[in-house]
Amino acid sequence: MLTYRYLITKIYFGFYPKGRPLPSIHRLSRLLGVSTVTVIGALKMLEREEYISGPELGRTVIYNPEARSGLPAGILAKEEVLRDIYQGFALILPPIFYDGFRRCDEKDLVRLEEILEKDAFFYDEAVMAFLSFLINKLGNPLMLDLYHDISLYSYPTHIARCAANIGLWTENYKRLQAVLKEMAALARREDFAALRSLLERTYFDYDPEYAAHPLSGSFKSPYRWGKPRLCNLAAAEIISSVDNGRYPVGTFLPSAASLSANLGYTLITTRRALSLLNGFGVTKSLNGRGSLVLGADEGRLRVKWREPSVRKNILLYLQAIQMLVLTGRSVAESVFPHVKAGSLEAAKRDIQEAAASGCCTAAVAVCLRLIIEGSPYSSIREVYGHLRELAVWGYPLSYIPPYPRLGDFVEMLLRGMEESDGKSFAEGFEGLCRTIFHSSREKMISVGIAEAKKLKLL
């Protein structure tokens, strides 16, 4: 649907003019970060609605602007939601782009310059391709998915703004392309301090109206990142209950029907969740008795490391942790002043209890809870809520020694909380995530998940 919204908006406002063929399926797939199947599905919808001709005629635009009264309902996102996204993502995107630049060699930098000089249907396409290339250097599909998802979600409203003042936005994109070339030159000279500063300034200078506009608070239809996989969410909730002792080791979980009623998921979704837990070594099913909660020794032996769903979810976990490493400091420091005193005290107690029990990794979950509760940005709450759900899939790795040494970072977190020092809190959170990333990556490689080698920190 997001791909369809992108294409129909560009056709409606004349950026893909009547009589001109659309970009090829493969070009659209690369530009938008979606599969060719998704692109073909969107093109078929446009063909049925008589915006474009069929493939036998080269998928040429046949839409006549005078024949219709406006865009279909629901195409444009609300501007207040997009302002929230723009301001919230100032904490997420610049650190990711910066890391991408640092990973570029000379061949990559030449390629980036070529992207900006290549012909495009509009200047924005070259910019999207440039930024996608940077994120792709991190080897993290989760980050790339977020960038494309947020771009496609925002794009129709952005194009409507461009169409209202095409001259202004054409000049904006020309200036942005020049600045991106300057960034590539700074990366070539390894002047990374100047590069980071230019990235942060450029983000806000690009759209000063959205950057400075006050936010209105909650929204009826906020941004949602992707489609929730309900069986994963249900499994994550059960794991959290096991972790906090609600379902102790050696006891049986409630029946699938009871869990379904308690968690609010359908029975089939709950059963799929229980199947996932068996694959992760959290439980084992005993015929006629139910799902037994396992301890670490037996759980490790029962983890189905070769099962595709297990490998996929553990890889998503590592991708989420890498994203927390790159963005966690800026997000945590920004959110800290907004955290309520009661929430801070509760979090401090939880972290102290986790440290006393030897489970320092639980401090990450506590910090994520604080960030999600305290952030003034709906978009940050959505993204970090998604990352928190994915972080649960690292559970099987907790069975494998050695365990990461996190005490220094926990002390830094607690000191930041006690002294109301957001910088110390943010540094402690980043340090926790970085140490856990390195430990988890090595463990994944040790059990044969070779794909983890592609994910690295600088």
UniProtKB/TrEMBL annotation:
Top-level taxonomic group: Bacteria
Statement: the UniProt record of this protein carries the keyword Membrane: no
Keywords annotated in UniProt: DNA-binding, Transcription, Transcription regulation
Residue ranges of every copy of the HTH gntR-type domain listed in the record: 228-296
InterPro entries: Tscrpt_reg_HTH_GntR, WH-like_DNA-bd_sf, WH_DNA-bd_sf
Example of a GO MF term: DNA-binding transcription factor activity
Stated name of the protein: HTH gntR-type domain-containing protein
